[in-house]
Amino acid sequence: MNIKENFSLLGLIEFPHILTLLNLISGMVAILFAISGEYQIACIFILVAVFFGFIDGKMAKYMKKVSVFGKELDSICDFVSFGVAPLVIAFQTTKNIGQGWIFAVIIYTIFLAAGALRVARFNLKELDHYEGLPISVNGIVVPVFYLVGLTVWYPFIFLVSAILMISAFHVKKFI
User: Fold this and answer.
1) N or C, which end of the chain has less CB nearby within 10 Å?
2) What CATH number corresponds to the domain at position 96?
3) What's the maximum distance between 2 C-alpha atoms anywhere in the chain?
4) Who contacts 141 (Cβ-Cβ below 8 Å, separation ≥6)?
């Protein structure tokens, strides 16, 4: 067996996938900063993930490199960057809200499950529109609410987002 056979996955990776992985890396860095209490930096990295999450699909279409592998990779990376990372920021910034804390944890858990269902459903359908709120919207909403000092609203925002992600309403693909 040669090196190429041992690392056959490397043959699947195209330039747009590198951009997708930069989305994932940005989300992971955001998580690490959030755990460290550096919420503003974490928010900046989530916004960086939004940039890479936006540009990777456009680049794949432009380069004619759209693939099932790329779609699956994108969904996994989006789940981390726009599901897990925003949740960690929300949890860290609202864990001291008193007795309502347990309700926030329940809401955050529902949000995470809804995000997983959202990206899984996205991969099953080829539509000219989004069905339900794209998970990537959380990559903008959560940092903005933090940066304007409205973290007290996170449990409500996460509940609304969870409901909208698993809903069946149609959102026009604007890009």
Assistant:
1) N
2) 1.20.120.1760
3) 59
4) 86, 157, 161
Instruction: Look up residue 34 and give its two tokens.
Output: 């959030």
> How many domains are there within the chain?
1
Determine the 3-state secondary structure of 62 from DSSP: helix
**108 closest CA partner among 94, 126, 125, 120:** 94
Query: 122: Cβ–Cβ under 8 A, 6 or more apart, which residues?
Result: 75, 130, 131, 134
User: Under a CB-based contact definition with an 8 Å cutoff, are residues 69 and 122 in contact?
Assistant: no
- Cα(135)–Cα(140) distance, rounded to whole angstroms? 10
Higher pLDDT, 92 or 101: 92
Beta bridge partners of 131: 170
Q: Nearest to residue 48, comparing CAs of 73, 70, 21?
A: 21
Q: Between residues 123 and 145, which one has the greater pLDDT? A: 145
Structural domain boundaries, residue 145: 13-172
Helices (H), the chain: 3-6, 15-35, 39-62, 68-79, 85-94, 101-124, 138-147, 154-166
Q: Is the pLDDT of residue 129 over 60?
A: yes
